[in-house]
Amino acid sequence: MSSNCTIAHRTDFDRLARPLAAWNPRRWYFESMRKALRAVAGISEGVGVGERHGYDSGVMLEYVYRNEARGKNWLGRAVDRAFLDSPGWRGIRDRGDLIKAALGAELDAAALAGREIHLLDVACGGGRYALETLRAHPGKAKSALLRDYRAENIESARALARELGVDARFEQADAFNDRDLDRIAPAPNLILVSGLHEIIADNRVVERHFEQIARIAARPATLIFTIQPWHPQVEFIARVLKSHTGAPWVMRLRPWEQTQAWAEAAGFKVRAKTMERQGIFGVVVADLS
Predict the structure, then answer these.
(1) Phi first, then psi: what are they for 40, rounded to 5°?
(2) How many CB atoms are closer than 10 A to CB 92?
(3) Cα distance between residue 270 and residue 249, in whole Å
(4) pLDDT value at position 5?
(5) Who's near 209: CB < 8 A, 6+ residues apart?
(6) Separation between Cα atoms, residue 76 and residue 188, nearest integer Å
(7) Which residues, 6 or more positions from 88, have their beta carbon under 8 angstroms from its beta carbon?
């Protein structure tokens, strides 16, 4: 892993976490953008969801996946379409297709080999990736457990499961809490971590999470997780959008080599890495023996 690359990513995060000086014209620009978003939140449903729940929330992502422009009038729908067509949201939807393809391939391979699959989505949000894949591959998972720390996400995922006719269990739990992880049963052998590490600023939390997953996983197991080494709108997002916590959404972009080193140190062997077409998001498949 390049130390210069890691230092650059850390420096970018620290810079974006600091407010711009009051006299800086870029601050005036971003403040005007922030006011513009608040102004259109009442007519654009997507912007309204982001303003209420945070732009990195499970509720927001579920809206992005549906990709249906909604608003109070033609202008609201036009704003919503422009919002949904931003590079980040297009990348999120492409990432979703990659995740479903990877999950489906693992389910098919296990069925051919006669292996039982116990699927775990540790932070499911609205649960769309796992549930749509389970619907497309019926009977190929012996069990499926979807978890999230927010009650509204669990309810959204449960409703989607009913809509799709998919049998799964749902639990409200913290993906990083050892006690919550220890309650998982049966031990999972196909684990999904999607969009979670990208919203965590603390590198040690993410590094340790690979260790936690390895501890609770069955053997052998496969981990599918997402990465985000780059984003073309990282400064706009940090200066204008708010996260699910209400604070500015400052992304911690991580070089792939850094994340790969953490996964391998926890015992995972990377089998495949696929980036979506813009190169913003990637999906990694790694095995634990």
Answers:
(1) -95, -5
(2) 22
(3) 29
(4) 44
(5) 175, 176, 193, 196, 197
(6) 44
(7) 231, 232, 233, 237, 280
- If residue 203 lies in a helix (H) or strand (E), which one and from where to where? helix 203-216
Q: How many CB atoms lie within 10 A of CB 139?
A: 9
Confidence band (pLDDT; 50, 70, 90) for 247? very high
Distance CA 190, CA 199 (A): 22
Angle between helices 74-84 and 45-53 (to 10 degrees): 60
R_g of the chain, CA atoms, integer Å: 19
Upper half-sphere CA count for residue 94 (Cβ side, 13 Å): 17
d(CA 234, CA 251): 7
| Helical pair 128-136 and 151-164, crossing angle rounded to 10 deg | 20
- Residue 62 and residue 154: Cα distance in Å, rounded? 12
Q: Using CA atoms, how far apart are residues 107 and 98, in angstroms rounded to an integer? A: 14
Looking up tokens 């720390």, which residue turns up? Answer: 149
**Do 107 and 117 touch, CB atoms closer than 8 A?**
yes
- How many Å apart are CA 182 and CA 54, to the nearest integer? 29
Domains, the chain, with CATH or none: 18-86 (no CATH), 88-288 (3.40.50.150)
- As a whole number of angstroms, the distance between CA 190 and CA 108 comes to 12
User: How far, in Å, CA of 2 to CA of 98, rounded?
Assistant: 27
Report how far residue 187's alpha carbon sits from residue 189's, in angstroms, rounded to the nearest whole number: 7
Per-residue pLDDT tens over the stretch 52-80: 999 998 889 889 999 999 999 999 999 99
pLDDT value at position 11? Answer: 60
